[in-house]
Design goal:
Blueprint (H helix, E strand, L loop, with lengths): L8 H21 L10 H13 L2 H25 L10 H20 L4 H20 L10 H15 L6 H28 L5 H28 L2
Length: 227
Amino acid sequence: MTQKLPAWIEIGAFVLALIAGIINVVGLLGFQHQSVSHLTGTVSLFSLKIIQGEWLLVQHFAGVMLSFFLGAMLSGLIIQNATLRLGRRYSAALLLESLFLIFALLMLQGNYSAGDFWASAACGLQNAMVSTYSGAVIRTTHVTGTVTDLGAMIGQYLRGHQIDKRKLGLYWLLLSGFIVGGLIGAYVFLQIGYHILWLPIAITQLLAAVYGWYWFKQNTNSDNSHT
């Protein structure tokens, strides 16, 4: 599967993982201390708070889970296909993600917990968008599967089996991107607070513009080759 992916996919995967690393650390450092880029811990906390009877937190965690789901659903509605194809509305999905992050920033600055919902929706949208065009090889908003696959591949290599070196490198880039994003997010958040979210907002908008330009260029070249 990875051999069929375009050459620039590694760069995009690293940048998207970096975005998610920033967003998640901002959620953890924010007033709700809530992970928003993945749901494993959120589901456990949701169950715990039901048993403890803390219903406001139950509602909050339910909102984060629902928002992630709705973001992923929007990705499916926008992109509509399981394989990477130019013109499959990735620019629109990226612009929508940046809009969600703007809403999250405005809410969080006003100390509204609904900011976590918008940030979670942005991550759900991003994760579904990437896994859709990569055949579920790439997950950019969490690293559990990435670390699992890395461990399994290295174990297979130690047993003398052949491994997909491009996939191995891709997983290292995803893990590195998420870590670097977390480092940047944590450092800058301590300096300027929620304004750090302008960085992933700007990056998603830049990615949308670059992808749109690349798609236009490819279409133009294709048209010229048929004339």
